[in-house]
Structures are given as C-alpha cells and as structure tokens.
Design a protein that fits this description.
247 residues; mainly alpha; 52% helix; DNA binding; transcription regulation; metal-binding
Length: 247
C-alpha cells in the first residue's frame, strides 16, 4: 500500500477545520462546515493583534489597577501562583510575567490584559487577609470585589474581539464567582470561556504551526495551557460541583 505523503495528510486534515484571522487580528478557528473556509487557502498572513477594545475599556476612566503598588502586585501574584494556579492551571506563568513587565503602565499585550490581571487579583484577594483589598474592611467576603467588577466591565469590550487572555480572565472569573456563592454567573462564565476557547482554536494541536514559523512556541504553550485549564474547569471541577453536564 502506498504511503500517504505529508501533503496528502495535510489536505485531509485541513478538511476538518482550519485556522483563520478573526476580529482584532487574532487567530480563530473555523470548522469544516463553515462556508468561510471557502474564502481562504492555507494559513492566512498573520496580522498584529489589535487591543483597541481592551485599551478603550482601560482608558475610559481611572482603573483600580492604578492603585496597585509593586509590593501589592507581588503579594497578589504570589498568592495566585501558590494557591490557585498550582491546582487549576489556566495561566502560563512565564509568558504572562514577561508580557506584564514589558509595559507596567499599561499591561496589555499578547498574554496579558487588564481584564486578566484584574481577574487574577480578584481571586488572589480571597487568599489575603489585607483589609485594603476589601470593599468593606470589616467583611472578608468582599475581598477582591473591586478587581472583579473592573474585570467584568472590561470583558464587555474584550468579548467583541476575544484573545487568549480574555478566555483566561473569563475562566478565572468563573472560579471567583463560584467561590463567592454566585453559582449562576460562575457557571455562565465557564461556558463563555469554553466557547471563546473553541472559537480561537485553543483545542487544536499547533505543533505544525510552530514548525512552519506561523506561531511562536510561547503562544502554542499558552494556548494549550489555557485550553486544558478551561476543559478541566468545565468537565470536571464545575460539572462535578454542580452535577451538570459540561459545555
């Protein structure tokens, strides 16, 4: 039996769906049933991702992030990496930190955004006993409320052209809302995260894209970490907690 060439395999697998460039210049995924696949041939030229929606959301009014000192940032991130991301891994630490430190005055880049940072701080605040992280210093259950509110506001804009960090922020907000007894919104945010993840093609193997130079190894890692984090959150963590079928 003749052995199929790499080209033949590529042609066959491409019929199962394909990457394309979506809103904001980010990579998105189109399934094989989509007529939009007829408009493309091969991997389209990659444009630089636009963060105009995130920038607009961040600059409309003063941000709670403006009041976060370097010491408080270090405290919250340490709590997040130690107590949250260690068991429910959604954020790839090294790429996130590299992007965060690129422009501390406005942390929006490939792997970070205002909504993601606020969501991480909101959840990390739950592990802190610092009164200044609470909207009511006497009520520990209000820890992180200001961060969560800003993250949700930013998502209104970011969902117009979601990025990987948008997916991560939504998944983390899901965990945070469930933790503060907002089960309905927590379940909804989880579903949103999974839908956006599939839309961006995070569930696909990107090894060929990395090999062909169409995607960096960092992006492939972040995509994989984010997808499996959402998958575990949806199929196991919340599905078991609520006794419901996942997305």
């Amino acid at each position: 039996m003749a052995r199929a060439s790499d080209v033949d395999v590529d042609v066959i697998t491409d019929t199962l769906g394909s990457f394309n460039i979506g809103d904001g210049g980010t990579i998105c995924y189109l399934g094989s049933r989509s007529n939009l696949n007829l408009l493309r041939c091969g991997m389209p030229h990659r444009r630089a991702a636009s963060h105009e929606t995130q920038r607009r959301a961040h600059t409309q009014e003063p941000s709670v992030l403006d009041r976060v000192s370097e010491e408080l940032q270090a405290h919250l991130l340490d709590l997040f990496w130690t107590w949250q991301n260690s068991w429910q891994r959604i954020v790839a630490r090294d790429p996130f930190l590299r992007d965060l430190h690129t422009d501390p005055s406005f942390p929006t880049s490939s792997f970070s955004s205002p909504s993601l940072i606020c969501a991480m701080y909101a959840l990390a605040s739950r592990y802190s006993d610092m009164p200044e992280l609470r909207t009511d210093p006497e009520d520990a259950t209000t820890a992180g409320n200001a961060f969560a509110a800003e993250a949700k506001q930013a998502l209104i804009h970011e969902c117009e052209a979601p990025t990987i960090s948008t997916v991560q922020a939504t998944a983390i907000l899901s965990l945070r809302d469930v933790a503060v007894d907002k089960e309905a919104s927590g379940w909804t945010y989880c579903g949103m995260a999974v839908r956006m993840a599939v839309s961006l093609g995070l569930h696909l193997d990107c090894s060929r894209c990395v090999k062909d130079g169409e995607m960096t190894a960092d992006e492939a890692e972040v995509r994989s970490v984010t997808w499996w984090g959402c998958y575990v959150l949806d199929k196991y963590s919340l599905a078991t907690y609520f006794g419901k079928a996942g997305s």
